[in-house]
Amino acid sequence: MDRIVAWWRALSPNARRGVVGGGLGVLALALIGGLVLASGGDEEAAPTTTTTAAPTTTTSTIATTTTEPPTGPVAPLTGLRVADPALVARPALAVKVDNLDAPGETAVPQLGLLKADVVFEEIVEGNITRLVGIFHSQQPGRVGPVRSARTTDVQLLPQFGRILLGWSGGNAGVVGAVRSNPAIIDAGVDVATGSYSRQGPHPAPHNLYVEADQLWGVAPEGTPPPPALFQYRSPGQELPPEARQALGVDLSWGGGAVTAPVSWRWDENLRVWVRSQRGRFHVDQGGEAITAKNVVVLVTEYGRSAADTRSPEAQTVGSGELFAYVNGRVIHGRWDRPDVAKPATLVDDAGQPVLLSPGQTWVELPRSGGVTTVFRP
User: Fold this and answer.
1) Do the Cβ atoms of 329 and 273 come closer than 8 Å?
2) How would you classify residue 77: left for phi > 0, otherwise alpha for psi between -120 and 50, otherwise beta?
3) What is the CA angle 193-340-327, rounded to 5?
4) Pairing of strands 294-298, 142-143
5) Residue 88 DSSP SS3
6) Is 152 helix (H, G, I), strand (E, B) or coil?
7) pTM: predicted TM-score of the whole model, two decimal places
8) pLDDT tens readout for residues 185-221
9) Of 76, 96, 142, 212, which is least packed with CB atoms within 10 Å of its CB?
10) Which of 75, 64, 198 is nearest to 134 (CA)?
11) How is the chain split into domains, by residue range?
12) Rounded CA gap, 274 and 267, in Å?
């Protein structure tokens, strides 16, 4: 009951009205082990506000944490040891994943995101978001729905060195930009056609899937692994005292009928951030909740793509405000990426490096004004 009360107190007035108006006096969602996941809206003033409500009726399970082997190489994109050295000796693989989640048309739930080392979320037309799953230290199996690339990806992906890209194509300008970029190895549907197929549960165009494990066969022999993207805390290492306790973060993408606001909430028992989208828990096709050990929010400027002026283009080379959600706390600071071939550096307000928890990280790329930290009451 205490967690239900805490959840209710964390809701914004708009979210409370939505819960009551929907006839839900109390939200109790059964997760594994009888866990009740408390979730809510914004509590304090933050850089901006959103209209994200608490999740409503979707019930999901949360996977227990995978046991890290005691020995083996460390995966550069997670900071975790892996048992099979061959996995981390190969290049990274990016797959463009559909995230349209609008009334009457949706690509959710997706398949394969749980096996990604890193997931980026970027804004495309209509303030929809599209996901870029970065796979490296696990075998992902089938991934999708796969969708087209954007010129954002041409700027985003070179930080991984030479990287494979699974995608469904794009307009002529995007295709030319992708294929002329020396950092991107084309593993799209036009190159690895036999690895792609159309299947349920969504209608076209939200039904293209790829057998992602097969795409590593497209990489030239000797293609190196990616560099480390983040720095990680050692076991038991404390976060800086400036890191504030946080229930989570609400993200908005600019509004509109087809946009899907996102929330992340900290689960104290399982020590992960749990994702919801458009007011319900975000799950994969097996009903398992989308979670992350870290949520890194890079406030990003967007221009217009030269390939299509209707398409926003994230300016990921540059600098901006940073919110890093780590171990139930938020660290505020700055990100800086002056070189397209290198990852961004993340520093807190004191100028010290931001250290993440080893594990999967989601990197969110909202515009300025799209971030609301939800602090503990």
Assistant:
1) no
2) alpha
3) 90
4) unpaired
5) helix
6) helix
7) 0.84
8) 999 999 999 999 999 899 999 999 999 999 999 999 9
9) 142
10) 75
11) 2-63+230-364+371-375, 85-218
12) 7
